[in-house]
Amino acid sequence: MEPMLDVRVEGEAGSIPALAFLDVLRTSLDLLDQLERAESLNSKPAGGWLIADLRSSSAVATLRRPDAANLQSHLRLVQGVGSLRQSEELPPYFSPDIAEGLVKIGRQLRQPGISGVTFVVPGLDGAAPVSEPVTEAVVTNAKTSVEGTDRAVGSVAGILDVINLRRGNHIISLYDEESRRAVRCKFPDEMFEVMKDALGHRIRALGVVTRNKRGQVLRVDIERVEALPDEAGAPSVDELAGIAPWFTGDQSTEDYLRSVRGA
Fold first, then answer.
1. Which helix H or strand E contains 116, and what residues bound it?
2. What is the strand order of the sheet 60-64 is part of?
3. What is the pLDDT of residues 182-201, one digit of tens each?
4. C-alpha to C-alpha distance for 41 and 161, rounded to whole angstroms
5. Dist CA 155 CA 161 (whole Å)
6. Are 109 and 117 within 8 A, CB to CB?
7. Among residues 103, 166, 100, which one has the least CA distance to residue 135?
């Protein structure tokens, strides 16, 4: 059964801004893509989401993902929104970028003519539909989930999936095989060739680790990396973060962080 998802931008018929609807739809597709990457890691299916139907009772786009019957990204999106409605903890498979995407969708709720945004997995073969609205509580908790509250020297391990140079910085996504959550990483210019060669492989990144108030890893400022065997079975990000106190040498963590900041 192919995955399907309704993206509903709710409001009075004829008064929903077209650009706001397109922005919600683009952001939703980006969230689905990130969840697919987390779910599939190096075996992401070819192709992409297609529009199966457009309705104007509010403004509803029904998306379908042909030839990818086993993917669960649409369900993970709806479940993650429901989790953030109750907690400021990043849900399974949710990276900081996904949480920030929901914050972006939340900004559209302030647009005149829009009263809500809801994700719905349609009920098929007699099953009930599953839906979750992007409420103010979801947006607030998503915003809190990506606030860094603790920085300490440590390490993370996972599969290096993406190197993004578009923001003027070397930013990578490192996917932990256990939580399937992408961790943002930055690295210095001189490490570019090393990181490029590591694409698609498992590495351990050592540096300064930033966590949210729930202790979840958000980011690593990389100082050096170690290659790991490509087979699964390594400890998770949360297990590895903070296991390398020797990385600071004779410095305390406080002194090391001061030197990293250039103070």
1. strand 116-121
2. 50-55, 60-64, 4-10, 116-121, 130-133
3. 888 888 888 888 988 888 88
4. 8
5. 17
6. yes
7. 103
Using DSSP, how many helices (H) and how many strands (E) does the chain show?
Answer: 7, 10
At residue 39, the pLDDT reads 86
Alpha-carbon gap, residue 174 to 66, rounded angstroms:
27
- Which pLDDT value is given to residue 245? 42
The pLDDT of residue 96 is 93
Q: Are 11 and 115 in contact (CB under 8 A)?
A: yes
SS3 21: helix
Q: Do residues 236 and 177 make contact, with C-beta atoms less than 8 angstroms apart? A: yes
Q: What stretch of H or E contains 186? A: strand 182-186
- Closest by alpha carbon to 3, among 43, 41, 38, 47? 47
Counting as low any pLDDT under 70, the low residues of the chain are 42, 124-126, 165-171, 177, 231-263
Output the pLDDT for position 125: 67
Q: What does the alpha-carbon distance between residue 175 and residue 97 come to, in Å, rounded to a whole number?
A: 13
CA–CA separation, 247 and 253 (whole Å): 9
